[in-house]
Design brief:
2 helices, mainly beta, 181 residues
Length: 181
């Protein structure tokens, strides 16, 4: 019975694909139910590290969090089911989130400056690289991306795709679905 329940749980989780650009600074936030997890490919990501989480839904939000160990294994289970490379952590938000856990977002490490401009998150990483964040839906998933300018020209700094496993209304432009540099 437990095995059937676990398999049903795993089948409902989103599948993610990420491009390699920006992986040392950016990762994916999400997880099973109310538990928010971070999956980061950076080898030096560590417990106790403070990160910024961008909720890319408009109006965007910038949330501060700390990476904590995945003591229960829920984040590792989510990571395995979503086929995400890297290391899974629990996200502890400060202040704590009550009613709005469960979004799919972008984790930013080493954020130098963060701001909200006209309901859009702007975060500086890597010296002078200032990123803006986008999310949109394709027919069965969510595209997440980070761009070095307001215009969607060329390729994004970072791109990830989350397969949701059910139909959603497509709202992406061609630019928002491009792989990273």
């Amino acid at each position: 019975m437990r095995r059937v329940a676990l398999l049903a749980f795993l089948a409902m989780l989103p599948r993610f694909a990420t491009a390699h650009g920006g992986n040392e600074h950016l990762g994916i936030a999400g997880g099973p139910g109310a538990q928010m997890c971070a999956v980061l490919q950076a080898a030096d990501a560590h417990e106790g590290e403070r990160v910024v989480v961008v909720d890319p839904s408009l109006p965007q939000r910038l949330l501060r969090a700390t990476l904590e160990p995945d003591a229960t294994g829920a984040c590792a289970t989510w990571q395995d089911a979503a086929d995400l490379p890297g290391r899974a952590f629990v996200l502890r938000f400060a202040p704590a989130m009550d009613d709005d856990a469960g979004f799919i977002g972008i984790v930013v490490r080493d954020a130098k400056r963060i701001a909200l401009r006209h309901a859009n998150a702007v975060v500086r990483v890597d010296g002078n690289t200032t990123l803006r964040f986008r999310s949109c839906t394709s027919s069965e998933g969510v595209h997440l991306s980070a761009w070095p300018s307001n215009r969607l020209e060329g390729r994004p700094f970072w791109h990830a795709y989350a397969y949701l496993g059910y139909d959603v209304d497509p709202a992406c432009s061609e630019a928002e679905t491009r792989d990273a540099r």
